[in-house]
Fold these 4 entries.
Entry 1:
Amino acid sequence: MTIDQDEPALTEDDHQEEDTSRALVIRGELSGLPESLQDKIFALHRRISLLLERRQGSVVQFASAQREREGSKIVLELAKLTAQRLDRKVLLFAIGPVPYALPNGAGDPSSDESWEKSVRGGIVLEDHIHSIEGTSLSFCQIGSSVETLPAILDNPKFDTFVNVLRSRFDMVLVDCPSMADSTIAARIASISDGVVLIVDAGKTRWQVIKNQIREIQANRGSVLGVVLNKRRFYIPEFIYKRL
């Protein structure tokens, strides 16, 4: 099963403001994306829902194929759009450091020690989940650094912890470190309903992507598909659509 690489793709023109993404703050409103780009991201949601047969409590992982978390902006906007357009309870579950900040007034991220205790007990503490005011979107971040994550994620009760999240939300979108920087996305792939790889066009060889897919599958994970990001149209896009 694959996600069509054309519709969700983000073009160079769509990313002319991309350098500001590292200062992103999660807010309830949409972030001023062009409507055409919002439609492409929402199309990604529809395809994922169809692949997962619209089951409740879906857990979907996202990871960039190349270094750094280039796909985090897509996951963030997907979470906002799903919560706003469908009024579904959505959790954006960030693993490790991310290029966006907690919403205003949400307080400081929970400590790694607090997360470890929570996962060990198979419970979700209210202090870990931050609701975005005026929306059905929530956010949490686990692991202040990549180095502290293995002790949390390798706990045998991490599966139980994720199932608690399933029971509380209609959809959990897991923003993982990139496949090129870390093995985290692959090592926890079995706890999700599927993994979506985000690939920057022209940056990563398909042989590398195939190896990453095999790594996910070796960890009993299911790859839903690939989103081709920052694709450049050397021929006007409307001509592609007519062919």
Note: Residues 35-51 form the longest helix (17 residues).
Entry 2:
Amino acid sequence: MLRRAYGIARSLVMYYPPGKYGRMRRLYGAFLRPGDLAFDIGAHVGNRVRAWRSLGARIVAVEPQPDCLRVLRLFFGRDPGVTIVPAAVGAEPGHARLAVSSSTPTVSSMSAEWRRTVVADERFARIRWDRSLEVAVTTLDELIAVHGEPAFCKIDVEGFEVEVLRGLSRPLRALSYEYLPPAHEAALAALELVERLGAAAGGYVYNYSPIETMRYASDRWLSAEELVRVLERFRPLGRSGDVYARLAVGPARA
């Protein structure tokens, strides 16, 4: 229990630091307007939820970890603009096993392959997934059927991003997914899926934000090929971050 309490406290310190809130509002303000719907897939302790609510967005926060769900309900449980979904997201609805790291819940994952990949990196050498939980699994298509199509969807699920995207059958206006250098190939597989989704809607353009900086690596939006070159540049530095994608057609907000 002490290890779990430490893990949640660590997440709160990591994701609610002073000085970053304004940058977060500016970045996401390019995607979200008052009344827009946003999906937070892997909501964790809700720092994106807080920023998006300040922009006037309605939010579906999806999170399978019980300890994180307690934080989300404490912070947002009485907010009618936030719907908390206690589940994971994948390619098909059902149930699956979630490997939980009590001391570092931010790296809890449903992907055994991702865990095998990242432990080879020295920064993950001391990570231990010390318990396993059975969790409900929904899909992005199911969430859209219930709640509507989001203006923006954030996907941060520790190596399960490809499975999440496989459960989506339509292009979204804008989305983001996590990039981790030790799992470079998985990020490219996710990019390929996003490209396929966008092909019928004029295609996506991309940018990259290094870990929690809330700033883009490029001063312009990039093609998929240009994004890959950016990721290759960051890969040897070992810095994770988020890939952002928005449809290239229509009025640009960013």
Note: The first helix runs from residue 2 to 15.
Entry 3:
Amino acid sequence: MIALDLDSQIQLLSRIQFLTRFSSNLVQVTGEPGAGKTWLSERYLENWANEPTQSLLICNPSQQDAQHRAIILRQIVRDGVFNEQDSMLQSLEYMLEGRSVHALVVIDDAQRLSATIIAELWALVTESQQREGWQINVLLFSLKGKLNKWLHKVSYGQGVKPLELEVSPLADNEREMFIEVMMVSRQLDAAQRRALKQKAASLPSLPGALRGLEQQETSLMEEKKRRSPLPLLILVLFLLAIGGGIVWWSMMPQTHQEEVVDMPDGVKALADILDEKEQEMAAQANSDESMSGELKDSSVVLDDTMALPDTPIVEGMTVGRRDQDRRIVVPDNVVDAIMDDQQTGGDGTNAVTEPLIPELAQPENATISDSMTTELETPEMLTVQESAAVETAAATTPPTPSTSASDVPMANKLLLTVPKASYALQLAALQSKAAVSDFLAQYELQGRALVYETRRNGEPWYMVLLGDYPTVAEARRAELALSADVRGLNPWAKSFTQIHKEIGLVN
């Protein structure tokens, strides 16, 4: 689906940005099912959020309060130590140790949160409003009317209250634009366009409902494509067989009754001829049995060499035997060894331990001169693939203690080519190349992680990234597939919009 920036959605996102720019607030964004709340939450994190620290929580029915606290706190304070049973405010005070914080917490499907977590989020916002150096904004994307009861209880009797914004349905012009984009992406003809518009007229003006129509049409088209013509073909063949049988039956001549015909003198009847033939065959069979009995009783051995086939001639069956030039017959085991060596990346020469022709074997004391070795190893003789392999091996080889820290490659230019809508998992933020080199060697990330340089307060910082994911949710799911030691670093999803901004700070 092509990304659409509708006017109503842009106005909503700009209001959220204005409310969270200068102070701490808890904003509830509500809407009907299918209003696009999940898409808006991801869109805000990608292109509208300005906070340096961001946290995303996608609520799941199977999650507990301790898991919700752990997901939020690990993204705000990386490598922080806390107790999952303590409140989020207590854990932040313990981990920050008097330092300032500027963070944004976005929670999707917030109607699944418990009353305890909602109270802790409200306490976190109110404490940030009173404490200098703290600014924490919380965005709750939920169904309409599901959190009003708990938010009213936690804010009762206080001077400030949570804010609520509603995702309104699409306007008429936005609805038409949305349907047109759906038809363009599917490349429908005129009749299919009219049918789609007629079906969409009965649906509410919500992106989810309209997208559901597109998915329904797509599934119907795929089901029609999957229908096999085999049953129809079997039916046609069955009808053809019945029709052919009827035509054959109608054209078959009818059987006439046998008539008694008087045969003239000197002419035998057919039955008499058949009886004579049967008698002759019986007499022949008896004579064969008597002859075989006589052969069994006789002690004479008959010569049956004439019944044997001639001796096979193998001349010319070997390839190249009649050629004047000399041919080489390669044994099967040598061919198999050469093929195995080529599959493992070799050229096959190492698989032959003995020369196929003794005259071509080099003497044991024959060695390659130093000048020839030098000539073979010059850079001019390397192909493009070999040079790329050398560079890749140099980039992926773990640094040894004698390796200089300046050899750590920077991926600033490469990362600028990645779309801003993508995400990566940030593993570490370090202040020296030596620390980056030790970090990559410790967690065996050479060749997998990318490092870029940025500036913070005029000082260089080096960020270690892993992966390229189209959405925040996929980046979170990819974190679960990492090894235990890397997952213990508590990676957090970072948008390439923010990554490009940080790369731009380097002059």
Note: The first helix runs from residue 7 to 19.
Entry 4:
Amino acid sequence: MAKDVAAPVVASAAAVGTAVVVGWAQLLGYLRFLFTQPFLLIKRRKRYGWGVVYNSLTKLPLDLIIVRLVDVNSNRIIQTRVTDSHGRYVFFPAIGSYRLETSANQFKFPSAFLGAVKDDGAFLDLYHGEPVEVKEAGVAITTNIPLDPLGSEPPLWKLVGRLAWRRLQHFFSILSLLLALGFAVWVPSVLTISLLAAQAVFYAIFLRLAIPQKPKSWGIIYDEKTRRPLARTVARIFDQQYNKLLETQVTDKTGRYSFLVGRNKYYVSYEKDGYEKKQSETIDLQNSSEPVASVGVDANLVKDNQTVDKVDKTD
């Protein structure tokens, strides 16, 4: 019957759609984290801490990063961990010599920025790819691993298109969830209820991986003369020390933007067609009381002289 075919199709489409939005690698990493983390929590001993994988410039922990423990002599992968929302991982290997390997989209390992550094503020005992010797049974490997952001600068059309595509995917995720609910109400059975549960799980994964965390505060970009909020303005945040691009955002219809960063020094640049490019003053968060802060500085943009001249000539 049509309803017997439609319900599985809806659930399958949701699964594929979620994978397309967040990426198969990230989705599989998240599922692996869900299945392995409970066992890790049971096994972890309180006297040991955690190792943290983090962004070398923003100092923020990186979640869903796959970390592999490799035997130096046999070059064989012994254990694999996926970092949690706080970037944490831990290994409990046997006596031997090991190295850690990790890879992630938009990040590079080992860190070039912190290559000669062993301690980075609150992050001690940094790891850069050197062998780790375990000489006693039950000893945990908990070194902290900094990763360097690659910092690519996509053009405005790509950023706007990516945002529109994400919103469209969110709409269809909600629609497929409602359709699955409708099937479960229309023909209540083990199959339709199970498919509804699966749909809810995929929607939760979508929210977890594809929807960014909402900041506590915002910055707003205005037109200097009219005080009108400027939508589709490109805001980029840079690390001040290395002049490295960390993240790019496009303001919404109310001109809002915000970046989540850690304890460091930053500056933000603003760019919009028809306006002069602008750069903020230094934003110093090195002594911030909070490990994670929202950076959103209000800014006024001035119309470009060439744009003003064109308007005057047209008039």
Note: The chain has a mean pLDDT of 78.
